[in-house]
């Protein structure tokens, strides 16, 4: 692979996140409940995993609807060879990400331009959609009259075509010694001292994505016998054809580890990369529990452009107890709370976050101003420590129409 290709992969490999899906019964044809709503189900390339193994795969040019369209929904889950949903306690889905890019036509070595979302972390967390263990029960549809516009020929540079990259990071935890430790990518369990590129881990780094990259192994109980098996990410895309009446929304992903504050208005990507994506939660001192053993992290995020909030949902890992986004004046923009499973079956696995609640404010009722500073808060229970957790917030924002099309006074249209 050309090196810029690989560099893209590295950037995206430290991402995660976000969004999606009302749970659909597997393998069921989707009813076209609305005129013009198209739906298609695809399978990623096959990946093979045995007990303890990690796959962190980057599939370029995956199957995807083509043409000038508006995306309305994207759902994904891990299935086996027979199309059965695979539960998280067998294959932990750390994340999947869907990334948009342009590729030069007819070039033999790929010439690629990544097309990140509108979010403040630049190419890090630049995906259009992405989620982790919560994928089966997190709503991600985009309500009418909104949609995510793709395939606009005016946006695609001459000689290029639009394509999609799917990153799937899965950890096979059948028979492992410490399930939570493996899913939190604790370096000791992976016997890893160097990151994917061969660089020694930074001192004090005890867990996270740098210890569970592709082809690493989490420690399995001796004598455990499990077979390798073939898995796929099955994803369902819904879309409508382009038409004037559909209002485009922009995708933002905010990250609670983004400590730059962004009190500036700089727009260059280099200036914006403060996003670390993951962080650790220290166990509270059992003797003098601080803050009721809640680890609360809060940052400010400068939003150069605002608009109407159409959708919001957070991404957290096990231990998460909720995240919220507030406006500059302290008003609540969206709160997103994890749903924990209570059983064994796929979609309801005990101990795992199987869904995140989402916000669908009535359009026009929740606004972000241009140049507003938002506050993002992510809470975890710290009754035990955690490594490699996340506090991301996914937002869809519709920018206001151009000034000249606005009413001249502040009359509200009903
Ligand atoms: C851990 O890694 C070291 C050095 O890379 C190797 O010598 C050792 O055998 C590994 N231990 C296990 C349990 O795999
Ligand atoms: C944005 O930054 C530029 C250059 O640093 C500065 O001149 C301008 O006043 C800033 N605008 C706002 C709205 O802060
Ligand atoms: C997070 O925890 C803090 C401190 O306990 C609390 O004030 C805040 O409301 C919590 N926020 C969320 C989103 O749960």
Automatic annotation (TrEMBL):
Signal peptide (residue range): 1-29
Keyword S-adenosyl-L-methionine: no
The keyword Signal is annotated on this UniProt entry: yes
Keywords assigned by UniProt, alphabetized: Signal
Protein name (database record): Stress up-regulated Nod 19
Organism classification: Eukaryota, Viridiplantae, Streptophyta, Embryophyta, Tracheophyta
